[in-house]
């Protein structure tokens, strides 16, 4: 069974940073536990928020800045899958051809 990482959308990240700011009485670990994210993950989101002049500009997996980047990523995945399938077929032909 594969170990799947949780993926959070941009709105959740914005809300998480706001939650931490709205609850200064809670320590960082408590905020992270209440939100169901890791300490380092929440700290990274907060650091990105502060480094971007208090604007949320999170880019995570699946969060492309433009439709062109999204299409490029899809085409790269498709190309890799096609190349993998071609390699498998080449190996099968060499095995069966002997």
From TrEMBL:
InterPro entries noted in UniProt: Homeodomain-like_sf, Transposase_8
Chain coiled-coil ranges: 65-92
UniProt-listed GO biological process terms: DNA transposition
Record-linked Gene3D superfamilies: Homeodomain-like
Keyword field: Coiled coil
GO molecular function per UniProt: DNA binding; transposase activity
Protein name stated in the entry: Transposase
Species, as recorded: Faecalicoccus pleomorphus
């Amino acid at each position: 069974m594969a170990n799947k990482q949780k993926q959070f959308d941009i709105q959740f990240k914005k809300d998480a940073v706001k939650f931490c700011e709205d609850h200064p009485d809670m320590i960082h670990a408590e905020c992270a536990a209440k939100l169901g994210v890791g300490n380092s993950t929440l700290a990274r989101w907060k650091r990105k928020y502060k480094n971007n002049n208090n604007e949320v500009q999170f880019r995570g997996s699946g969060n492309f800045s433009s439709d062109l980047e999204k299409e490029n990523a899809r085409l790269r995945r498709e190309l890799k899958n096609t190349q993998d399938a071609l390699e498998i077929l080449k190996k099968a032909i060499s095995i069966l051809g002997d």
